Amino acid sequence: MSSTVKMLYAADAPIDPLKNKTVAIIGFGSQGHAHAQNLRESGVNVIVSNRRDSANGRLALAKGFDLLSIEDAIQKSDLAILTLPDERQPEIYNASIKGRLKPGMALGFTHGFNVHFKTIEIPTNVDVIMAAPKGPGHLVRSEFEKGGGVPCLAAVAQDATGHARSLALAWANGVGGARSGIIETTFKDECETDLFGEQAVLCGGLSALIKAGFETLTEAGYPPEMAYFETVHEVKLIVDLIYQGGLDYMRYSISNTAEWGDLKTGPRIVTDQTKAEMRKILKEIQDGTFARGWRAEYEGGMKEFKRLYEADNNHPVEVTGRKLRAMMTWLNAKTPPKD
């Protein structure tokens, strides 16, 4: 397995193309709050559009941003970055953005979903670019504040001006990506690998593994508190070791007994059948099956989404976890904000 990927840093991605330009962040959510603040602190003129009567809107105001309507933000900007949820972008784009894009301006995305799967139609006289940090927005922000940065993917889907690439790289630099490395890619590759990672490993796969492990222990009669510590709490400890030094460093850091269990037993959990299902999941992402299903779920009122969410939110592993995390004052336990 070989790769021709080249990591780009600040010298390869000067921020100059963003100087003397106005960047509009549409949505002050997970990625939006980080891009807005990081770009502002990188010397870029940033404006923000978000509903005032929401947790994100109140946060934007608290951070010193005035809030504009989407229409005004588009009119005032040279680069408009959509950080709204994927499922909401088409309707908001069609209602408030599409007919207001100025020739020569740029439209930015932090994920390739709607461009790659063609759920929105973008005129040919604007640049279409992407800067996608490989981490959640809170990490993009906190690493930037520490003087570091989260690695970033940059891509160009449409180059109307001849300057789209330099603009995308400048944006990736401005949010901190050039401090740890920028990789140039395509909207297709970013979108498909991101969806697969979320579904098969990082979120879907890990969540299902945690629940199955918790259920196996509690069904065998072990206390739920002990099951929680073994299948949830300690996940961070292991993941941090992998994050710092890969699987090898994690195995170096654990006991020989744990390492033997890892090497010998892991393949019994993730089997050839599991990998075959992963290939099926990837195929459904590549051929648009997942995207069409997600659009249909959203347009149908997200009834199945809400049912599944409530079932998981009330799963015994979550009930136990909320109780235990409340006792661990040093943990700085988090709960999602409510509008």
Jot down its keywords.
339 residues, alpha/beta, eight-stranded mixed β-sheet, globular, single chain, 17 helices
N-end to C-end Cα span: 47 Å
Mean pLDDT rating = 96
- Write the element-wise H/E pattern from the N-terminal end onward: EHEHEHEHEHEHEHHEHHHHHHHHH
Flag low-confidence runs.
none
How many helix segments? 17
What share of residues is helical?
Answer: 55-70%
Largest sheet: 8 strands, mixed
Structural class: alpha/beta
- Spatial order of the strands in the main sheet? 3-2-1-4-5-6-7-8
Ordered list of secondary-structure elements with their pairings:
Blueprint: E1 22-26, H1 30-41, E2 45-49, H2 55-62, E3 67-68, H3 70-76, E4 79-82, H4 89-97, E5 106-109, H5 113-116, E6 127-133, H6 137-145, E7 152-158, H7 164-174, H8 177-180, E8 182-184, H9 187-202, H10 204-219, H11 224-233, H12 235-253, H13 256-269, H14 272-286, H15 289-299, H16 303-313, H17 316-327
Parallel strand pairs: 1-2, 1-4, 2-3, 4-5, 5-6, 7-8
Antiparallel strand pairs: 6-7
